Automatic annotation (TrEMBL):
Residues 644-663 have a biased composition (Basic residues). This is Nucleolar complex protein 2 homolog. GO terms for biological process: negative regulation of transcription by RNA polymerase II; ribosomal large subunit biogenesis. GO terms for molecular function: histone binding; transcription corepressor activity. The lineage of its organism: Eukaryota, Metazoa, Ecdysozoa, Arthropoda, Hexapoda. PANTHER family: NUCLEOLAR COMPLEX 2 AND RAD4-RELATED, NUCLEOLAR COMPLEX PROTEIN 2 HOMOLOG.
Length: 686
């Protein structure tokens, strides 16, 4: 057994020595070069170390047993095996790997720490803010490389970090600062200094994110989050100015929800730092309002109204500060108007007769009306009224009747809110006395002109019948509203006397029944209210010089109600319904309703029916057959008398030809099947 094993081991040892021998390896490579030159060339290009095998570097097995350390260094030692990756081929081997790669598990842990009921640690807040910064770097930078402690990869991790900060970070900061129950200033909290720099970094990143978002839904969520963080934004003037600049853009140009949220953020930031920011905000908001109210249309009108109402609220925060701004801007309007009156050039008139000027008047009238119970801004009522009245008188032509009505509407609202008498009726009755409503129109318009979004009419529009209809409607509505507001005053019969005389004169000269009907109704209501005030005035025992007694009497009459006020309330309800219909465009929807066409049955079809029935029930029955032809219209909805006569003759001459008559009926009944139109409507459309 031993003799057999010994030679086997020797052979194995000799084989291993041959494999490790450099000379043998070199000979095999030379042989490979001859047998397979292509493979040898491949090795030569890709692995030169294998071909340039150093013969002197290798030693016998006995040399290895001596433990030569230099040989061990030259032997290739493979590294640990790693799994394949799609991105591993593109990674830079020299770049240092990011140690803080954020995972969803880490985000979940941070979220749990933020929601801790016991205490929120500063390290948790700083870590979350650093993660948000890493997410912002990924969103804003081109390569997404982060120089910070953390790195965000993948949209799921990015969304998780943003969601965590939006939902849980504001409450965690309040808990850390101890502001959960007390609404004190964050700067007075003892831990504010520790988190101050981190808050500045976070708010700066949040503003960057707001500037890069275009989706309305995401913008809404971020603005709600900014509203929660507004108390911290106000702590840093530089951050607050950057935030206000972005918020003003959203407030003036965004969608409806975005506008409201942006204004709430502006209001909260300003109120938390009112002494330092109110002047800046009022000026910036007014200039933004004027810039964005240059063009008025049915689509832009709601946004302009919202900006005006929100500006009134901002100016009401501090009337002493607001007085300086309001006085300056009203004075600018007066200077522009004075130049237009003195110079009398087209350029100067255009500086007054535009939407920016009119909307500015509207804004200051609303502000003075809203603050009528406070004395700070009331001295500005008189100069504003003088500007509005002289704006009407600047170019008192027919083309500018829409602008006149806008100015009168502003005066009516200001008079009502400020409880101040203003002579408004002469500007309305002047239209009745100067314009000839009996003049025949040269053009026909189906609907009255809408004056709500125009200031000037074209000459072609003055020739339409819709122009006169609109003028009468506006005169009727404005005179009714103004007289209803003044209907409780003790001097109502005297104030409306001249207007009553001019209305009676108009009724004598005007021959258009639709116009005289409306004005006669208005005249009757004014005279009825005048008689009511005279009867109540006859009962008083105090003199007119006693202001307090007069004010008390007028208050009692207003509480009791007047005939004109009752009529105006009923009319305004109907008018509001009509405006809603105009906004929802019900007339256009009704125009698409299916039309009912009456078609006679043939004799064959009549014979198939029962003798008691005379065909289908007609919706519009008539006794004369000739009347049926008046309902038949051509494609252009124009009557065709020639066709009617031809058909009438055909009925007399061809009474015994049911076949031809049947074919004509079939032709009349042939309608393109485009589906049931009625099924396309739903309740929501109305």
């Amino acid at each position: 057994m031993k003799k057999i094993k010994a030679p086997v081991k020797a052979s194995e040892h000799s084989d291993s020595e041959e494999e490790l021998d450099p000379e043998t390896h070199k000979k095999s490579l030379e042989k490979l070069k001859k047998t397979d030159p292509d493979f040898y060339n491949f090795l030569e290009e890709n692995d030169e170390n294998l071909l340039n095998f150093d013969v002197d570097s290798g030693d016998d097995a006995s040399d290895k047993e001596d433990g030569d350390e230099d040989d061990d260094d030259k032997v290739h030692k493979p590294g640990p095996l790693r799994a394949d990756s799609d991105e591993s081929d593109f990674e830079d081997e020299e770049a240092k790997p990011v140690q803080g790669k954020i995972t969803l598990k880490m985000v979940a842990q941070w979220q749990a720490d933020l929601q801790s009921e016991v205490k929120v640690k500063l390290t948790t807040l700083t870590t979350v803010i650093k993660a948000f910064n890493a997410a912002m770097v990924r969103a804003t930078s081109e390569d997404g490389a982060s120089d910070g402690e953390y790195k965000v990869e993948g949209s799921s991790v990015f969304n998780a970090v943003i969601q965590m900060c939006v939902l849980y970070l504001p409450g965690a900061i309040r808990k850390y600062l101890g502001m959960e129950q007390s609404g004190k200033d964050p700067q007075k909290c003892k831990h504010f200094i520790k988190i101050k720099t981190h808050l500045i970094s976070y708010l700066g990143d949040l503003l960057k994110l707001l500037g890069g978002v275009t989706s309305e839904n995401i913008l809404t969520v971020l603005l709600k989050h900014l509203h929660q963080m507004s108390i911290y934004v106000a702590c840093f003037i530089r951050i607050a100015k950057q935030a206000l600049k972005k918020l003003l853009t959203f407030w003036s140009t965004g969608e409806e929800t975005v506008r409201v949220l942006a204004f709430l953020c502006i209001l909260r930031i300003t109120r938390n730092q009112q002494p330092a920011l109110l002047d800046l905000v009022l000026k910036a908001m007014y200039l933004t309002y004027v810039k964005n109210c240059k063009f008025v249309s049915p689509t832009t009108w709601p946004g302009i109204n919202f900006m005006r109402r929100s500006l009134v609220e901002m100016f009401s925060l501090d009337l002493n500060v607001s007085y300086q701004h309001v006085f300056l801007y009203i004075r600018q309007l007066a200077i522009v108007l004075r130049n237009a009156i003195v110079v009398q050039k087209i350029e100067n008139r255009q500086a007054v007769y535009n939407w920016q000027f009119v909307n500015s008047l509207h804004l200051w009238a609303d502000l003075l009306g809203a603050t009528s119970n406070k004395a700070q801004l009331q001295p500005l009522v008189y100069p504003l009224v003088m500007i509005i009245t002289n704006t009407i008188k600047l170019v008192p032509t027919h083309q500018y009747y829409p602008l006149r009505f806008h100015c009168v509407e502003i005066l009516v609202n200001l008079s009502k809110e400020s409880n101040t008498f203003m002579p408004i009726l002469p500007f309305l009755t002047e239209v009745l006395t100067t314009f000839d409503f009996n003049k025949k129109h040269k053009k026909v318009s189906m609907k009255p002109l809408d004056f709500s979004c125009i200031l000037r009419l074209a000459k072609s529009q003055l020739m339409e019948n819709g122009f006169k209809d609109s003028v009468i409607e506006r005169l009727y509505g404005l005179m009714l509203e103004y007289t209803a507001n003044e209907s409780h005053t003790i001097a109502f019969p005297d104030v409306t006397l001249l207007a009553v005389i001019q209305l009676k004169q108009f009724l004598k000269t005007c021959s258009v029944s639709n116009y005289t009907k409306k004005m006669r109704q208005l005249l009757e209501k004014i005279e009825e209210n005048s008689k009511f005030i005279e009867r109540e005035r006859a009962k008083i025992s105090f003199s007119l010089s006693e202001d307090k007694m007069v004010a008390a009497w007028e208050t009692s009459i207003r509480t009791k109600g007047t005939p004109l006020q009752t009529f105006f309330e009923n009319w305004s309800k109907i008018n509001r319904i009509q405006k809603r219909k105009k906004i929802t465009k019900n007339d256009e929807i009704a125009g698409e309703l299916p039309k009912i066409k009456r078609v006679k049955l043939s004799n064959d079809a009549a014979q198939n029916t029962q003798p008691e029935d005379k065909g289908p029930v007609e919706l519009f029955p008539s006794d004369d057959e000739e009347e049926d032809d008046h309902f038949k219209m051509d494609e252009d909805d124009t009557p065709a008398p020639k066709v009617k006569i031809a058909k009438k003759k055909e009925k007399k001459n061809n009474k015994k030809k049911p076949a031809k008559k049947k074919s004509s009926v079939v032709e009349d009944n042939t309608i393109d099947d485009k589906g049931d139109i009625v099924q396309e409507f739903s309740v929501s459309d109305w």
